[in-house]
Amino acid sequence: MSADVTHLPRKRGSDTLVLDDYLPYRLSIASNGVSGLIARAYQDRFGLTIPQWRLMAVLAEDPLTPQALVARTAMDKVTVSRAAQGLVTRNLVARTASPSDGRSHSLSLTETGRRLHGEIAPLALAYEAALLTGLAPADVVLLKRLLARLEAAAARLSGEAPTR
């Protein structure tokens, strides 16, 4: 008589992968949940994708080249290019040729883009505040510090430069 192995309790040793305890999985689930929540708001209300909003948020700080946007946002070149093209088409971002290199250009928010950013930024901050409700300020500081350390460790392991 053989036992049905699907009903046996799983031994949780250090060499056993339990998905719910696996940090990369938990980070992915949390990220997808937060991104999905916010993406619906940006898409429904402003017609922006997550990559488009990320570019706008970064460009609100400084004009950047597409290559610098790839590094800063940790998005791939194709995603950055498509998001930028959509923003240029909507007159939210302007493309300016580099005076020193005719093959390069920088992207910056237009006045329309700045106004839209000014409308969205308070909503983004409100979402962040709602997500952090229940966490002590010291916990938020610790969470941000730990996430930065995880990002740096991932960059080191992949042989890439950290994004910040």
Structure overview:
The protein has helices at residues 23-46, 50-59, 66-73, 77-89, 111-132, 137-158, and strands spanning 93-97, 105-109. The chain is mainly α and 164 residues long. The protein has a single domain, classed as Winged helix-like DNA-binding domain superfamily/Winged helix DNA-binding domain (Arc Repressor Mutant, subunit A, Orthogonal Bundle), CATH 1.10.10. Strands 1-2 form a two-stranded antiparallel sheet. The longest helix has 24 residues, at 23-46. It starts with 22 loop residues before the first helix and ends in a 6-residue tail after the last helix.
The top-level CATH class is Mainly Alpha
Superfamily (CATH H level) name: Winged helix-like DNA-binding domain superfamily/Winged helix DNA-binding domain
CATH architecture: Orthogonal Bundle
**Strand count:** 2
Strand order in space, largest sheet: 1-2
Reading the helices and strands in chain order gives HHHHEEHH
Q: Which residues form runs of ≥5 with pLDDT under 50? A: 1-9
End-to-end distance, in Å?
59 Å
**How many helical stretches?**
6
Major sheet characteristics: 2 strands, antiparallel
Task: Please compute the radius of gyration using only Cα atoms.
Answer: 21 Å
Number of domains: 1
